[in-house]
């Protein structure tokens, strides 16, 4: 990504139950800075979980993965996550 001409938008869900979103975003930004890239934006959403879907999609704190036969915990809470999805949807238009 540090060699790309694209602009990057990092969506950081602060209560992601599946991935270390904040840590991985910090790593990506550090790599971009080290390579002189400045065309990125980081947006942090308090209370948001992993599944950032289109606005007004139902909130799911966890789902069942049929292939792996396990429940996956996505994190977040309904209100903050739904607000983040709505805001994120507008930013991506």
Question: Can you give me a brief rundown of this structure?
Answer:
30% of the residues lie in helices and 22% in strands. With 93 residues, the chain is an alpha+beta fold. It has one domain (8-91).
What's the arrangement of secondary structure elements?
Blueprint: E1 8-13, H1 21-34, E2 40-45, E3 62-65, E4 70-73, H2 78-91
Parallel strand pairs: 1-2
Antiparallel strand pairs: 3-4
Can you tell me about this structure?
Helix content is 30%, strand content 22%. By secondary structure, the protein is α+β, with helices and mostly antiparallel strands. It has one domain. The strands form 2 sheets. A two-stranded parallel ribbon has the order 1-2. A two-stranded antiparallel sheet has the order 3-4. Helix 1 links the parallel strand 1 and strand 2. Pfam families: BAAT_C (PF08840).
């Amino acid at each position: 990504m540090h060699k790309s001409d694209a602009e990057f938008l990092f969506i950081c869900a602060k209560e992601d139950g599946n991935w270390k979103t904040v840590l991985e975003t910090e790593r990506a930004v550090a790599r971009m800075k080290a390579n002189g890239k400045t065309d990125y934006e980081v947006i942090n959403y308090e209370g948001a979980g992993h599944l950032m879907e289109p606005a007004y999609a139902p909130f799911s704190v966890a789902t069942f993965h049929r292939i792996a036969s396990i429940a996956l915990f996505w994190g977040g809470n309904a209100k903050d996550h739904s607000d983040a999805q709505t805001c994120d949807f507008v930013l991506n238009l």
